[in-house]
Amino acid sequence: MAVSLETGPKVHEQGVHRLLASYRLIPADGTVRLAKKTSNLFRRRERNPHPGLDVSGLTKVISVDPDARVADVAGMCTYEDLVDATLPYGLAPLVVPQLKTITLGGAATGLGIESTSFRNGLPHESVTEIDVLTGAGEVITATPDGEHADLFHGFPNSYGTLGYSVRLRIELEPVAPFVALRHVRFTDVASLVDAMTRIVEEKSYDGERVDYLDGVVFSADESYLVLGRQTDEQTQRPSDYTGQQIYYRSIQHEPSATPKRDLLTIRDYLWRWDTDWFWCSRAFGTQNPRIRRLWPKRWLRSSFYWKLIALDHRYNVGDRLAARKGEPPSERVVQDIEVPLDRTAGFVDWFLREIPIEPIWLCPLRLREPVPPGADPARPWPLYPLQPRCTYVNVGFWSAVPQTPGRPGHTNRLIERKVADLDGHKSLYSESFYSPAEFAALYGGDDYRRLKQKYDPQSRLLDLYAKAVNRQ
């Protein structure tokens, strides 16, 4: 069995020792949190007065087994580092979230999605075992059908409130050197959804295989499906969207019977959205050609934009600039929601009428089949209870709207109600406004309470509602 050691078990073991030592330094009445400077959460948080967990030794790939197509990865390892370790073997994770600095542990406990999700599900579904530091200060190994199977199935969408992943073993899949793209334009969202439905079932479009599938809606009469196919053939010079060219703008074209075609290396395809944080870099002026020519290339990435957002959170820069112009403060509307495929057109039509945000991202997903051994066939992942054998579409929208006077969170609450009416869910990485009863009904309720009592009996970790809604 060929095994490539990236850092090796001994180095990882040293990192675990530092983690446990830092846990013991936190006062018994102190809240346990990670000591890390970066985050992909888009909600404000209260500062922790106590020292956090030392995860500095848990940031690397431990090993890659190219024969078994698995990797052992430390919990704080980023997907950027993991992809760099697996691509030399012609392998990649089954689902690679869009931003380079998302960690494996973060994607497993906080969910993630990408253009392989219509065939590979969500990132946590390719995890086969997890070492978890629980709130009780123990490192345990959770597997689908082992002693801690309840934690394995309840870990996704727990956001570090049941424990932190120390090590994850994940499946890998073969990938080709290039991805050939077709950008198919639609003049109404209903037609796009019809085409998406066929592609999800047939894994092909117009006689050509589809390995990657997502879409962008620019307006009610301009939307696109982006169809990717792995290939060994370099049929044209690969495009480069890491510099002056902007990926999402390359999708657009005039209506025609022939889809627009493009070619990317597999690495550039996986990170196609990171350079401009989808399209959110325009808020910083970097899509202005004159500014972009002067903007250092090393700053054209999501990790740098996060630093700018952190400064805005800290000093309210955006609202202060708006006040100088006589404009009201903004309400951030930064969300990813999932609704059933057959209700997606209705949601998007409503959104385009009611919410002044564009573009929006579409990404279909289905839970993998069969469900993991030991899981509830009807609710395999109880804290984010998507239904097996049902196709959903993730709709992502990330911007701001003018605040409604006297009604904080008004637009976000509208969206939450609409999503619930359509039997959908929303991710919890951003701001939420649910009541405790609504939250419990949507995100695990009794299942979560049982897991919390078992694995964090002294409540050393934050409660999920406190973390996701009260933003503690």
Q: Which spans have pLDDT < 50 for at least 5 consecutive residues? A: none
Quick one: biggest sheet?
8 strands, antiparallel
- Overall pLDDT score: 92
Number of strands: 17
Strand content: 15-25%
Tell me what the CATH architecture of one domain is. 2-Layer Sandwich
> Structural class from helices and strands?
alpha+beta
Total number of helical segments?
16
Cα distance spanning the termini? 46 Å
Query: Regarding CATH, which class of one domain?
Result: Alpha Beta
- The gyration radius over C-alpha positions equals 22 Å
Assembly of the depicted chains: single chain
Strand numbers in spatial order across the main sheet: 13-8-12-11-15-16-14-17
Which keywords apply here?
22% strand, 16 helices, alpha+beta, 472 residues, Uridine Diphospho-n-acetylenolpyruvylglucosamine Reductase, domain 3, 29% helix
Question: What this model shows, in words?
Answer:
This protein is α+β, with helices and mostly antiparallel strands. 29% of the residues lie in helices and 22% in strands. The relative contact order is 0.13. Strand 2 and strand 3 form a beta hairpin. Among the domains are: 171 residues, Uridine Diphospho-n-acetylenolpyruvylglucosamine Reductase, domain 3; 95 residues, no CATH class. The protein has an 8-stranded antiparallel β-sheet with strand order 13-8-12-11-15-16-14-17. Strands 1, 2, 3, 4, 5, 6 and 7 form a 7-stranded antiparallel β-sheet that branches.
